[in-house]
Every structure is written in structure tokens, then in C-alpha cells.
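Support request from a user on the community tier.

User writes: "When I paste my C-alpha cells into the form, the page sometimes reloads and wipes my input. The last time it worked, I copied everything first. Here is what I submitted, just in case something in the input itself triggers the reload:"
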């Protein structure tokens, strides 16, 4: 996981209706993840909704990557991860406002990351 990564796709699938999906990259978003050898990471999402960034530490535990977010709000998340050739795929729970009514809904997020 050490290195600089960019999203090739960020696909959100509604948990309530799996036929409802949104690919944020296809909608113009850009996502970058940088991981240092120490385990420190930074994530930046821009271009779809407000700019956001998070910082913290991560560890790889078997089939999972554990993100221990420190800023802006402490939070932990565990994502399934898989390495395929040069790409990394991360999958886990998220939230997204699919119908743009101002209320987020439970979703599954699949990130396909490629090295910069």
C-alpha cells in the first residue's frame, strides 16, 4: 500500500437498492491516497461535492486495510483489499446521497486505485 494512488473508479452501490449506483470518477471526482512507509496516510477527494481530506494511520491485517482516521474527525474503518497487478481494490461501507435530497443513505464503496 505504500505509495501514491489515484482512483480509476469510485463506485457507490445503494444498500437499499443494489441497482442504484454512482461512479464519482465518471461524474468528475478525483481521489488521491498517499501512504508513507510509516503507515501515515492522507486522502483527498475533490470535484464532486465539497473538497474533503482526511489524515491518519493505516495497517494491513490479512484481507483488510484498517484506516485509523485522525483528522478531521477521529474514525476507524475496515476495508477489504485486493491487489491485482498494479491496482489496489478497496471495498467497504459508506454513505451517499443518491437522490440528492440532502440525506445520505447506506452504500457500499468500491475503489479501484492505480499508482501515480
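"...and here is what came back when it finally went through:"
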Amino acid at each position: 500500500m505504500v505509495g501514491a494512488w489515484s482512483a480509476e473508479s469510485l463506485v457507490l452501490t445503494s444498500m437499499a437498492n443494489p441497482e442504484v449506483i454512482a461512479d464519482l470518477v465518471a461524474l468528475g471526482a478525483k481521489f488521491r491516497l498517499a501512504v508513507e512507509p510509516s503507515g501515515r496516510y492522507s486522502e483527498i477527494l475533490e470535484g464532486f461535492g465539497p473538497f474533503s481530506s482526511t489524515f491518519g494511520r493505516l495497517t494491513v491485517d490479512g484481507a483488510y486495510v484498517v484506516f485509523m482516521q485522525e483528522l478531521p474527525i477521529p474514525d476507524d474503518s475496515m476495508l477489504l483489499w485486493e491487489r491485482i497487478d498494479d491496482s489496489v481494490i478497496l471495498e467497504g461501507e459508506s454513505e451517499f446521497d443518491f437522490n440528492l435530497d440532502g440525506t445520505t443513505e447506506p452504500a457500499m464503496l468500491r475503489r479501484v486505485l492505480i499508482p501515480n
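Agent notes: The reload is a front-end session timeout and is unrelated to the input. The chain has a mean pLDDT of 94. The radius of gyration is 14 Å. Escalated to web team.
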